[in-house]
Amino acid sequence: MNLLFFGDGWDDTWRRRQQMAWHLARRPEVAHVLYVELPLTLTSLAKFILGRADPDASFAWGRKLGSRRVAMPSGLTLATPVSVTAWRLRAWGDEEPSRGFCPGLVRALTARPTVVIATVPHAYLWLGDCSWEVLCYDCTERFDLMPGLSDARRRFYALADAWLTAKADLVLVQTQTQLQAKRKDNSNTYLVPNAVDTGRFESPVQEPRSLQGLGRPRAGYVGSINDRIDVALVEQVAQLLPEWQFVFVGLVARHAEVQRIFRLPNVHHVPRRPYDEVPAFLSAFDVCLIPHRPNGVAESQSPLKLFDYLAAGKPIVTTGIAGLGDLEHLVSVADDAPAFARGLRVAQRDSHPAQVRARRAAARANSWEARVETVLSAMCACGLRAGNRDGFGNSRQRQHAHDR
User: Fold this and answer.
1) Reduced to 3 states, what is the DSSP secondary structure of residue 402?
2) 181 membership: H or E segment, kind and range
3) Is pLDDT at 46 greater than 70 in this prediction?
4) Annotated domain spans of the chain
5) Phi, psi at 16, each rounded to 5°
6) Is 148 exposed, middle or buried (0-12, 13-18, 19+ CB in 10 A)?
7) Could you tell me which of 186, 192, 194, 143 has the C-alpha nearest to residue 172?
8) 104: pLDDT confidence band, cut at 50, 70 and 90?
């Protein structure tokens, strides 16, 4: 099968979308994966030249212009469209996706029968010109509930999510809460939590230079540092444990409330690091943290960092988020500062070899290879239901139903 994969930017952080595309490309059932990023704009190019572009746009332009290199596996091609004018989401109030969004490119991409995987709401804007044999919607999170959005953008995200859920042959979700919600609108909804490349985290590594000389005990967090962090909780815990060093590794969102935690003397920030360097940071932590706010966004997310932490064998203290699933017995859950501080003290001593082995075994049972096996099986099942004995339906029939 040929896969057309609509995702966000391809960078060196390696989130769910890149992991899924990369592991699919390695499967013998897959002939080729074409990964289509969100379009870059000439406005962002001007900012990049002037040194004012945001980190994601800077990385993408650097890669596109040849000053950055990223490894691409055999069987996977990256497509980065460029828009001449400022790119805007154009389907605010429409019930169907806008036609003509880079139509030539999309028609060229879908010249052969294709399985389409949509992982971002913006894929809705491309699909007016696509045909497909199986449409898979990987619903990664509730974009419409994210803070700081305009009303128009929030409406767009809700509209795109509803359209993709209804039209998809297959919907993937990350948490039980999401599963129950989506199955009301699409019975072909499957639970596919995040996972981990376990082999990356089990070999000895050297302590990162940026942490050398930093005292212990250390509590660490790796990931996006934005408004999903419970700022008040982190501040209170850091003040309750002044002898602890708290390290947050990742990109800090602009104008986010979370920036104030770095005013505390025992809270430290390390800029976002490539995925290959994450094992070294986890190895240097005594305990790992997931201090997320338990809100609507968290209810739809399965934290990648949870599986990374387990693969590193580290004890974990977290707030009560939905994405813990059947791994909750391997973590300490605390929803207020005193309980979180107690959990850290207990977790610091929770390094018996048997406990480390149990965490790593749980991580190995949640590998990306296993997740992709689930996805491919679900795709084939949906294709068979479409009436084709080879596993996929007729693209013209699907396009006709899509137009109708």
Assistant:
1) helix
2) helix 176-182
3) yes
4) 2-195+368-403, 198-364
5) -55, -45
6) exposed
7) 192
8) low
In this structure, what token pair is assigned to residue 391?
């596993």
Least confident stretch, 14-23, 200-209, 247-256, 295-304: 295-304
Instruction: Examine domains 2-195+368-403 and 198-364 and report if their fold is the same.
Output: yes
In the Cβ-directed half-sphere of 330, how many Cα atoms lie within 13 Å? Answer: 23
Q: Which is nearest to 339 in space by CA: 200, 241, 263? A: 241
Owner of token pair 């790992």: 288
| 188 and 382 Cβ atoms separated by less than 8 Å | yes
Question: Residue written as tokens 């212990």?
Answer: 216
Tens digits of per-residue pLDDT, 157-213?
A: 899 999 999 999 999 999 998 999 999 999 999 999 999 998 889 887 899 999 998
**CA nearest 149: which of 92, 83, 232, 96?**
92
pLDDT value of position 108: 56
- In the chain, the percentage of residues whose pLDDT exceeds 70 is 85
| Residues present in the chain in total | 404
- Beta-bridged to residue 190, according to DSSP, are 172
Give residues with Cβ within 8 angstroms of 139, minimum separation 6: 161, 164, 165, 171, 172, 173, 174, 178, 182, 300
Sequential DSSP letters for 2-37: EEEEE-S---SS--HHHHHHHHHHTSTT-SEEEEEP
CATH homologous superfamily, domain 198-364: Glycogen Phosphorylase B; (3.40.50.2000)
Q: How far is residue 53's CA from residue 49's CA, in Å, rounded to a whole number?
A: 8
Strand positions, DSSP E, 161-225: 170-173, 189-191, 218-222
Joined together, the tokens standing for residue 92 give: 């605010």
pTM: 0.86
The domain defined by 2-195+368-403 folds into Rossmann fold (3.40.50)
